[in-house]
DNA sequence: TCTCCGAGAGTTTTT
DNA sequence: CTCTCGGAGA
């Protein structure tokens, strides 16, 4: 069969057009579930099959490693079905992985060594703290985290310390520049790059060495970028650079699914693509094949409330399916129980397997209660994200040993494990080594060695340090010639890390040993997958860049739980989105923000979550939820209200109120419960109960309060005679003990007993 | 130098 | 509420 016929069969006209358009700038606006991956893979197969480009002349950038793997898999499938032979490896990867690959080749030009290490954000934070100590900057007045985020955003804008200096004049920024500069020096000394560096240094490389850039421009004659709406500025610059020569750039995205602006993603990249490339062809994929019609229509109605979007409407010819289930519960425990019970009874009726169910939430903290409820019902589940595997202490420790074995300059790794397990090398000694290193401009490893030679420590300490240095030298040697798995066993053994854990018989140690076993399994699996390529360096790379979704395998039969963010790109037949409450989803920060765009991003998140569902969708919220041990009463999320009522099946299990709310007028119930237009399955009784929607603070405890004694609720603007104007951040207690926490303009939070504080509403 | 305890901070989201 | 960090005492 003809290649073109083959790759375009079973495609709709828009999809077909996208697959056939190979030359020039192309923008594909792909709504949720519109067959985006299908188009990308078929387009690539089309190029290769027709011989327009060889498989290693196409660069395809995706957002996650999982997406990359998936795409690679599918392309191989199509190509082999077509009878085409692929000689060379495909370049499908994330920006970060792509950059690592480039940098391993060329980073010597930037005066780094090719075996550079990669720092994750906690390593980065340690490095910043180290720098701050050296600069004698008080970390109480200037939190290290602030510097971290400022440095990160500077890097994402493509700014060096000098560039940052020029672009700003504020006080904190002066300090930031100072820290940034010192941080860069330290990172270079440690021969390590942070996440942002991977992109920035590649950009620098291309900028400073046009011949290298040209080589890649010539090589990658076709470029495709997936999830273009979530690219940040530096990624944008990289893409522009690589594509500028041939302009065969195809970007795919959905502005309605841009949910990473907090990480520097710039939605303008996709909105302005047609300005960047005047001759760009635009193709819209608007037919959703994934979800039942009620879900598509509900999600569409929600996203329509955003202003920052292109004119694009999702439609479907699928059956209407179930109405969207909206469920009100008393508190977060009841909410969890409802989810667990629903899954259980559906399973009893033979609906799908556990794999077909997913639960999404806004914040990781919400998972705890849900887990509890699933466990009591005996429902198997797995968490994606949260405390990541490689962020656990014992894993980070072992990784630090591995890192230090190939990159002795890695001071952060050294500091982490020099006394783990305890070797009697204490804080004072470490500080001395650090000082000495700074003084002599050596790495701490070198400094420790030198300090021993020069007898800077007493005999006992010197012996301890010597033993550590010998250990590391031994490991460094072994790292050179041992196979990955063997080496790992050697490290576990010689560092006596495992032995120390085994000696301690606490359950925590037991868990740690199990985690190390899991790490061993991970290495074994890595070796199996990569074969020849499974070096220590490549493994550490994988550990740094691959997140948990990437390893999410569908094999084991269990319910999946994750944050809404991670859910992007996935789909499940049955989806629960929990915690749809104001100040949680949308988050308090965005809801209070004056910037309407913050709420729009939350709305996109809601859109992403809803459109993951193929057949059935539940949206749940709790009237009361404990946050930081405090009870919070938040009204249902505005996003629920934005769904047309004829698409909703509303049920509540929460008690109807005994009396109407006394304070805090509810603007909510007026257009929610009050409107008599419920979905067909809602009974009149449900309708009556909807009244309980109104202000959630209608609890009997308040009955004795004098009217107007505490007219404060979350989000309210108040004035205090001494502290000025602020926003109510949280409330607690009742009656005389009714307290409010107020965040003032300088970001300080103060707690007041309302009865005594002279607070007034603004 | 290590261990234990108390204070204080933190929750958005992660390649 | 829960985790982390820093300080004091053994």
From TrEMBL:
Glycosyltransferase keyword on record: no
Compositional bias ranges of the Acidic residues kind: 695-704
Gene Ontology biological process terms in this record: recombinational repair; response to radiation
Enzyme class: isomerase
Residues reported to bind ATP: 30-37
Limits of the UvrD-like helicase ATP-binding domain: 9-292
InterPro entries, per database record: DExx_box_DNA_helicase_dom_sf, DNA_helicase_UvrD-like_C, DNA_helicase_UvrD/REP, P-loop_NTPase, UvrD-like_ATP-bd
Coiled-coil features, chain-numbered ranges: none
Keywords: ATP-binding, DNA-binding, Helicase, Hydrolase, Isomerase, Nucleotide-binding
A single GO molecular function term of this UniProt record: ATP binding
Region annotated Disordered, chain positions: 667-706
Gene Ontology CC: one annotated term: cytosol
Positions of the UvrD-like helicase C-terminal domain: 293-569
Enzyme Commission number(s) from the entry: 5.6.2.4
Catalysed transformations (reactions): ATP + H2O = ADP + phosphate + H(+); Couples ATP hydrolysis with the unwinding of duplex DNA by translocating in the 3'-5' direction
Family: Belongs to the helicase family. UvrD subfamily.
Protein name (database record): DNA 3'-5' helicase
Gene from which this protein is expressed: pcrA
């Amino acid at each position: 069969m003809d290649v073109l016929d083959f790759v375009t069969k079973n495609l709709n006209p828009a999809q077909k057009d996208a697959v056939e358009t190979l030359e020039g700038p192309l923008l594909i606006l792909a709504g949720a579930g519109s067959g985006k991956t299908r188009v990308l893979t078929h387009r690539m197969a089309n190029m290769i099959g027709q011989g327009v480009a060889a498989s290693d002349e196409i660069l395809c950038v995706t957002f996650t490693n999982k997406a990359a793997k998936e795409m690679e898999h599918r392309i191989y499938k199509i190509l082999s079905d077509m009878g085409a032979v692929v000689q060379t490896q495909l370049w499908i990867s994330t920006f970060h992985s792509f950059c690592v690959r480039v940098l391993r080749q060329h980073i010597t030009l930037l005066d780094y060594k090719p075996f550079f290490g990669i720092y994750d954000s906690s390593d980065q934070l340690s490095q910043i703290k180290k720098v701050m100590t050296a600069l004698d900057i008080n970390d109480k007045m200037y939190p290290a985290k602030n510097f971290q985020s400022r440095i990160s955003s500077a890097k994402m804008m493509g700014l060096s310390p000098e560039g940052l200096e020029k672009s700003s004049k504020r006080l904190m920024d002066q300090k930031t520049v100072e820290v940034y500069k010192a941080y860069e020096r330290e990172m270079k000394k440690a021969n390590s790059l942070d996440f942002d560096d991977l992109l920035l240094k590649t950009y620098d490389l291309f900028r400073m060495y046009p011949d290298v850039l040209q080589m890649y421009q010539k090589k990658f004659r076709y470029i495709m970028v997936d999830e273009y709406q979530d690219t940040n500025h530096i990624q944008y610059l990289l893409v522009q650079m690589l594509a500028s020569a041939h302009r065969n750039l195809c970007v795919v995205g959905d502005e309605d699914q841009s949910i990473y602006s907090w990480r520097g993603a710039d939605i303008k990249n996709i909105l302005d693509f047609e300005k960047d490339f005047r001759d760009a062809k635009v193709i819209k994929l608007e037919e959703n094949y994934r979800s039942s019609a009620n879900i598509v229509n509900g999600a569409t109605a929600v996203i329509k409330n955003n202003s920052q979007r292109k004119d694009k409407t999702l439609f479907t010819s699928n059956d209407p399916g179930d109405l969207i289930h909206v469920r009100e519960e008393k508190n977060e425990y009841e909410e969890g129980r409802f989810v667990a019970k629903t899954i259980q009874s559906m399973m009893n009726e033979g609906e799908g397997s556990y794999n077909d169910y997913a639960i999404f939430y806004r914040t990781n903290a919400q998972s705890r209660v849900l887990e509890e409820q699933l466990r009591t019902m005996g429902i198997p589940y797995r968490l994606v994200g949260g405390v990541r595997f490689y962020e656990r202490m014992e894993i980070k420790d072992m990784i630090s040993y591995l890192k230090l074995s190939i990159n002795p300059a890695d001071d952060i790794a050294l500091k982490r494990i020099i006394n783990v397990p305890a070797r009697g090398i204490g804080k004072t000694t470490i500080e001395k080594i650090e000082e000495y290193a700074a003084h002599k401009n050596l790495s701490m490893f070198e400094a420790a060695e030198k300090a021993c030679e020069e007898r800077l420590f007493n005999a006992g300490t010197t012996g301890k340090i010597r033993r550590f240095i010998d250990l590391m030298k031994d490991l460094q040697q072994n790292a050179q010639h041992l196979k990955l798995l063997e080496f790992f066993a050697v490290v576990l053994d010689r560092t006596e890390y495992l032995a120390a854990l085994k000696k301690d018989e606490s359950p925590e140690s037991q868990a740690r040993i199990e985690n190390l076993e899991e790490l061993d399994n991970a290495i074994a699996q890595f070796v199996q997958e990569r074969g020849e390529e499974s070096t220590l360096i490549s493994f550490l790379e994988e550990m740094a860049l691959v997140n948990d979704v990437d390893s999410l395998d569908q094999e084991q039969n269990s319910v999946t739980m994750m944050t809404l963010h991670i859910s992007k790109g996935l789909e499940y037949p049955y989806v629960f989105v929990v915690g749809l409450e104001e100040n949680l989803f949308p988050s308090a920060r965005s809801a209070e923000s004056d910037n309407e765009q913050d709420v729009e991003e939350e709305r996109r998140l809601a859109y992403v979550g809803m459109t993951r569902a193929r057949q059935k969708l539940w949206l749940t919220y709790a009237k009361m939820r404990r946050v930081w041990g405090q009870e919070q009463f938040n009204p249902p999320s505005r996003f629920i209200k934005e769904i047309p009522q004829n698409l909703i099946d509303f049920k509540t299990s929460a008690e109807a109120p005994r009396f109407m709310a006394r304070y805090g007028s509810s603007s909510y119930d007026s257009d929610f419960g009050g409107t008599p237009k419920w979905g067909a399955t809602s009974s009149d009784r449900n309708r009556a109960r909807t009244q309980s929607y109104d202000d959630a603070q209608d609890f009997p405890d308040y009955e004795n309060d004098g009217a107007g004694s505490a007219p404060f609720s979350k989000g309210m603007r108040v004035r205090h005679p001494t502290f000025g104007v602020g926003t109510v951040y949280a409330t607690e207690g009742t009656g005389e003990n009714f307290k409010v926490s107020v965040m003032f303009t300088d970001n300080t939070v103060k707690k007041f007993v309302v009865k005594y504080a002279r607070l007034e509403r603004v």
